[in-house]
C-alpha cells in the first residue's frame, strides 16, 4: 500500500497539472470530472513503471495529455466552438484593457486543434522545446516550427476577437 | 497581444486552488470504474472471452447430445475457432495492458490506440463473418438430424429444403454483414477518424 500512498502524495502535490489539462480540453463540469478521474487512473496504472528518470511533473503531463487527447466521450456533451466564441465575446464586452486581451487570447487558444493546444500548454508552462518534443514524441526542431506557426495563428485570431 | 506577452501575464495570474482534492478524495477517485477507450476495449474483450466459453460449452454439449458423424466435426471446428479467437484476443489484451502500464509520448500513444482499435474492430468483424458459415453448417446438420429422426415427417423434398435454407441464410448473411459494419462504424468510426486527424496534425510540420 506504500506505493499507493506515495502515488497519492505525489498527485496531491501536482494535481494542478491535471486540473489545467482538464480545463484546457473540457468545458463541461461533468466532462472535467470524468477526465480528471481518467487521468488519475491512467497515472496510477503507469506509476509502477515510473522510474524517476524524468521529473514527476513531466511524466504526469505526458499521461494527462495522452489521456485528454485520446479521451472518448459522447459528442452531445461537448460545447461547440461557436458557444465558446460567444462566451469569450461576452467576457470581452464586459471587461477592458489587459483582461480583454487575455480573454481574446484564451478564446484563440480554445479554437486551436487538440495537438496545438497541448503544445501551447507546455509552452506556457515554460518547458523548453526539447522537453516538449519528448512529451509529444517529436523533435525539438519540429516543435519550434509548430510553435512559430501557432504564434502567428494565435495573434491573428486574438485580434479578431477584439 | 502575442503569445509571449500572454505567457508573462499567465504566469502572474495562475488560478487558485479552488479545485484541489484531498488525499481521501483522490483515493476514492482511484477506485472508480474507468471510461477510457482502452478500458472499454478491455471490457469488450472480456465479454468476447465469455461468449467464446459459452460457444465451447455448447460445442461440447453437441458432441455428446448428437453422437453422429456430422455433429462431431462441427463441434471440433467450433472449439478450434474459439481457441484461435482466445489467442488473438489474449494478445490484444496484453498489448493494451503494456500500453497502459508504460505511457508513451503523445505521438506514439495515438499510434498505439489507433492500432489497438483497428485490430479489435477487424477481429470483431472477421470472427462475426467466420461464425456465419459455422452457423450455416450447424443449421443444416440440426435440420437433417431432426427431419431424419422424426417419423411424423413423411416425404421431405431435400432439394427444395436446402435451396430455401440457403437463400434465407444468404439474405441473413447480407443483413449481418452490413449491420456489423454499421455497428463498428457507429461505435468507433468517428472516434478513429478524430484520432487519425490528430496523428496527422502531430506528424505534419
Strand and helix map with partners:
The complex is a heterodimer of chains A (162) and B (205).
Chain A: H1 2-25, H2 29-47, H3 56-69, H4 81-94, H5 97-110, H6 114-124, H7 129-136, H8 140-161
Chain B: H1 3-12, H2 23-30, H3 37-65, H4 71-101, H5 106-149, H6 158-203
Helix pairs in contact in B: 3-4, 3-5, 4-5, 5-6
Structural account:
The complex is a heterodimer of chains A (162) and B (205). Chain A is mainly alpha-helical and 162 residues long. Chain A folds into two domains: 1-77, RNA polymerase sigma factor, region 2, helix turn helix motif (Rna Polymerase Sigma Factor, Chain: A, Orthogonal Bundle), CATH 1.10.1740; 80-162, Arc Repressor Mutant, subunit A (Orthogonal Bundle). Chain A is 78% helix and 0% strand. Chain A has helices spanning 2-25, 29-47, 56-69, 81-94, 97-110, 114-124, 129-136, 140-161. The longest helix of chain A is centred in the first third of the chain and has 24 residues, at 2-25. Chain B is mainly α and 205 residues long. Chain B contains six helices and no strands. The radius of gyration of chain B is 26 Å and the shape is elongated. The model of chain B has no long low-confidence stretch (mean pLDDT 86). At the A-B interface, helix 1, helix 2, helix 3, helix 5 and helix 6 of A face helix 1, helix 2, helix 5 and helix 6 of B.
Amino acid at each position: 500500500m506504500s506505493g499507493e500512498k506515495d502515488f497519492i502524495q505525489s498527485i496531491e502535490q501536482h494535481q494542478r497539472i491535471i486540473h489545467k489539462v482538464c480545463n484546457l480540453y473540457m468545458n463541461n463540469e461533468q466532462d472535467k470530472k470524468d477526465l480528471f478521474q481518467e487521468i488519475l487512473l491512467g497515472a496510477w496504472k503507469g506509476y509502477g513503471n515510473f522510474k524517476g528518470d524524468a521529473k514527476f511533473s513531466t511524466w504526469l503531463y505526458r499521461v494527462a495529455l495522452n489521456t485528454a487527447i485520446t479521451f472518448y466521450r459522447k459528442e452531445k456533451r461537448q460545447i461547440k466552438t461557436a458557444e465558446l466564441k460567444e462566451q469569450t465575446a461576452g467576457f470581452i464586452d464586459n471587461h477592458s484593457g489587459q483582461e480583454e486581451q487575455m480573454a481574446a487570447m484564451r478564446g484563440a487558444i480554445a479554437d486551436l486543434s487538440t495537438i496545438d493546444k497541448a503544445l501551447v500548454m507546455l509552452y506556457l508552462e515554460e518547458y523548453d522545446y526539447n522537453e516538449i518534443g519528448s512529451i509529444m514524441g517529436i523533435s525539438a526542431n519540429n516543435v519550434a516550427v509548430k510553435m512559430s506557426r501557432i504564434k502567428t495563428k494565435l495573434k491573428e485570431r486574438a485580434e479578431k476577437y477584439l | 497581444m502575442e503569445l509571449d506577452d500572454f505567457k508573462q501575464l499567465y504566469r502572474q495570474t495562475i488560478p487558485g486552488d479552488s479545485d484541489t482534492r484531498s488525499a481521501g478524495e483522490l483515493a476514492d477517485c482511484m477506485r472508480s470504474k474507468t471510461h477510457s477507450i482502452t478500458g472499454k476495449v478491455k471490457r469488450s474483450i472480456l465479454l468476447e472471452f465469455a461468449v467464446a466459453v459459452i460457444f465451447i460449452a455448447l460445442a461440447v454439449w453437441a458432441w455428446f447430445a448428437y453422437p453422429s458423424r456430422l455433429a462431431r466435426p462441427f463441434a471440433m471446428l467450433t472449439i478450434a475457432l474459439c481457441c484461435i479467437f482466445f489467442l488473438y484476443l489474449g494478445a490484444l489484451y496484453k498489448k493494451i495492458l503494456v500500453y497502459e502500464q508504460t505511457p508513451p509520448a503523445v505521438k506514439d500513444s495515438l499510434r498505439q490506440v489507433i492500432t489497438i482499435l483497428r485490430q479489435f474492430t477487424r477481429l470483431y468483424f472477421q470472427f462475426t463473418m467466420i461464425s456465419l458459415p459455422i452457423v450455416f453448417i450447424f443449421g443444416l446438420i440440426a435440420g437433417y438430424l431432426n427431419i431424419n429422426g422424426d417419423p411424423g415427417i413423411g416425404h421431405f423434398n431435400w432439394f427444395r429444403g436446402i435451396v430455401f435454407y440457403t437463400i434465407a441464410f444468404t439474405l441473413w448473411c447480407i443483413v449481418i454483414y452490413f449491420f456489423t459494419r454499421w455497428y463498428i462504424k457507429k461505435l468507433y468510426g468517428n472516434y478513429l477518424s478524430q484520432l487519425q486527424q490528430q496523428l496527422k496534425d502531430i506528424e505534419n510540420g
